[in-house]
UniProtKB/TrEMBL annotation:
Gene that produces this protein: rhaS_12
Domain of life, per lineage: Bacteria
A Pfam family matched in the record: Cupin_2
Keyword Cytoplasm assigned: no
InterPro entries assigned: Cupin_2, Homeodomain-like_sf, HTH_AraC, HTH_AraC-typ_CS, RmlC-like_jellyroll, RmlC_Cupin_sf, Tscrpt_reg_AraC-type_HTH
Protein name: HTH-type transcriptional activator RhaS
All residue ranges annotated as the HTH araC/xylS-type domain in the record: 187-285
Keywords attached to this entry: DNA-binding, Transcription, Transcription regulation
Organism: Dyadobacter linearis
Length: 286
């Protein structure tokens, strides 16, 4: 497996870097980088991990991330199968805080933008009309160069700073403690859970994968993920169950076992704990 990276996406030519991503699956590596990132999914489904947040994603998923926020859009298993004709498609824009000079954000007129960039350290998810506007602007940016690309970015950031439609992704108490030297260990844990969450996951097996005792691994994981390992596994399972419930093809009992729960009662209890509704209520509401 390719080692997770402290991603280098520096451009020697452009202040604002825009990439249109088309591939059989999104980058499966848990990673972070020193750039701000605005990303929208045009095609593809899977699990989205940002900071201490775990969500399913699909077309329309649009987020703004601050520097060094660890993240991963993990495509569903079907995208990795041999012979699959599935495709993922997204547009991502990168810039650094000093892209207009080190003192630019200190100007009094930049107060709203400074707050937006501060909020982005927890990640921001966009919905509704503002999300649609971001998607249109990102697609336009793929064909914009030079000074116009900077003007368009500033105009978009000003809109994000002053209009409703964004909500934080990571929890209020989230503190980013990841280091480049530790990322490979967490990548192994994430890969293992995402590939085996529908089966029994033994704490000892995962701790051994990380090269730790069970007790040391539990402390390590909670300090960096802001949640227990059991909560992490259950959130992955519940996210998968939510997706299956909305597809409306299986019974709740089938979904419970397909998501890795050993009994229907255990599934119902955990679903209510993490979602706030029973599976049947969730299905009816959405």
């Amino acid at each position: 497996m390719k080692a997770p990276i402290h991603k280098n996406i520096e451009s020697q030519v452009h202040t604002v870097t825009v990439q249109e991503l088309k591939a059989p699956h999104f980058d499966p590596n848990w990673h972070f980088h020193p750039h701000y990132q605005l990303f929208t999914v045009l095609e593809g489904t899977g699990k989205r991990l940002i900071g201490d947040s775990i969500q399913t994603f699909g077309p329309g998923d649009t987020v703004f991330l601050g520097p060094d926020v660890p993240h991963l859009w993990r495509s569903d298993p079907a995208y990795f199968e041999a012979g699959s004709d599935l495709i993922t498609h997204g547009v991502v824009l990168y810039f650094q805080e000093d892209f207009l000079g080190k003192d630019f954000l200190e100007k009094p007129e930049m107060l709203g933008l400074r707050q937006l960039l501060l909020d982005s350290k927890r990640g921001i998810e966009y919905k509704g009309a503002l999300r649609d506007h971001i998607r249109e602007e990102l697609l336009t940016q793929t064909n914009t160069e030079g000074f116009k690309s900077i003007l368009k970015l500033l105009t978009l950031l000003d809109k994000l700073a002053h209009e409703p439609g964004g909500s934080p992704i990571s929890s209020y108490g989230y503190v980013n403690t990841y280091k480049v030297s530790e990322t490979e260990r967490m990548q192994k844990v994430h890969d293992y859970v995402l590939q085996h969450f529908f089966q029994e996951i033994r704490l000892g097996d995962v701790a051994s994968l990380a090269g730790m005792t069970e007790a040391a691994f539990c402390r390590y994981f909670k300090a960096r993920a802001n949640k227990t390992f059991i909560d992490f596994v259950n959130e992955i399972r519940i996210g998968h169950a939510c997706k299956l419930l909305l597809e409306d093809k299986w019974t709740i009992a089938q979904i419970a076992y397909d998501s890795g729960f050993d009994s229907l009662s255990n599934f119902n209890r955990n679903f209510k704990k993490y979602i706030g509704h029973t599976p049947r209520e969730y299905k009816g509401n959405y």
